[in-house]
Amino acid sequence: MAAGASAPRLGHVAFRVRDLERSIAWYAAAFGAREAFRARREDGAPQLVYLELAPGQFVELFPDGKNPIEEPPEPLGYAHTCLVVDDLEAALAHLATLGVAPTAPPRAGRAGQALAFIADPDGNRLELMAIPPDSPIYRPTPGPA
Questions:
Q1: Is 3.10.180.10 the CATH number for 80-135?
Q2: Other C-beta atoms within 10 Å of 61: how many?
């Protein structure tokens, strides 16, 4: 980093979705996401929506996705989006009430974290991770700004 420049922070992940309102409702029910911003096209149709998961952390949704991306064997590039949760078992129990099940059994990661993978309604791969304080990748959650 150049002197005086701040380190970058991850602002959002963006997904093109088949049904915008269904995805908004799913992220709200699954993670408590709140709509923070909606842009509209000139004809009034939605262009994009920002959902806030935690202060300053967003999922951006674009409507009218049509063709799922087929993942080739041993792909290069994007793999998944990770969402940190306080309690993986509680998060999975809540998601089960919505009919969402992990794509594989939860497991321990190499850094001592607990993790599981799920998919949103359009098949976007989401990793849920609970990181204990003794993990080398643990960072305290910052307080309100």
A1: yes
A2: 26
- Summarised one tens digit per residue, pLDDT across range 100-119 is 999 999 999 999 999 999 99
What's the N-to-C CA distance of the chain in angstroms?
Answer: 24
Task: Decide if 49 contacts 5 (C-beta within 8 A).
Answer: no
How far is the C-alpha of 120 from the C-alpha of 17, rounded, in Å?
10
Between CA 20 and CA 2 the distance in angstroms is: 40
Instruction: Write out pLDDT tens, residues 23-68.
Output: 999 999 999 999 999 999 999 999 999 999 999 999 999 999 998 8
**In sequence order, which residues have a C-beta less than 8 Å from that of residue 42 and are 6 or more positions away?**
none
